[in-house]
Amino acid sequence: MPLETLFSTASSLAMVGWLVLLISPFVPRVAHIVSGRIIPLILSVGYTALILAFWSSGEGGFDTLDNVARLFESRELLLAGWVHFLAFDLFVGAWIVRDARETGALPFWLVLPCLPLTLLFGPAGLAAYFALRAARRPAHALA
User: Fold this and answer.
1) Is residue 142 part of a domain?
2) Which of 4, 97, 133, 135 has its CA 20 to 30 A from that of 65?
3) Residue 109: which domain range?
4) What would the pLDDT profile of 18-59 be if each residue is shown by its tens digit?
5) What is the Cα–Cα distance from 47 to 43, expressed in whole angstroms?
């Protein structure tokens, strides 16, 4: 299968997961299963297949920034890296939604801005969620 097709398929699948998260207040169990488990698992299997198929053809490594850049000169490994981000960012987004719902930490309308941040900038969305959660914590709970 062409790399561009794999890229489009993985990206579209991840977007389905994010859309399900947006309607999660109406279907929390479906969101938990689809966006928090099934789609990240499918993406993880795709990532693993790409790594197994193309890792040996890549140059570079993880020991220096230049070597990481050399790894991503391979379009196949670049795609694997992209799928890695799609899987983990969606998993974190689903965790944020689930944590807010289960703990009652934040109403969904306050979680909403964290989701695009997580989709686009991963750790920034998680940090925003933790910051909002801490800001909403009652003063007596901080002790």
Assistant:
1) no
2) 4
3) 3-136
4) 999 999 999 999 999 999 999 999 999 999 999 999 998 889
5) 6
Task: Please check whether residue 28 lies inside any domain of the structure.
Answer: yes
pTM of the model: 0.91
- The residue length of the chain stands at 143
Tokens representing 67? Answer: 């070597």
Question: CA triplet 113, 119, 123: central angle to 5 degrees?
Answer: 85
The count of domains in the chain is: 1
| Residue 141, domain member (yes or no) | no
Interior angle at CA 128, CA 82 and CA 84, nearest 5: 15
Residues whose CB is less than 8 angstroms from the CB of residue 96 and which lie 6 or more positions away in sequence, other chains included: 111, 114, 115, 118, 125, 126, 129
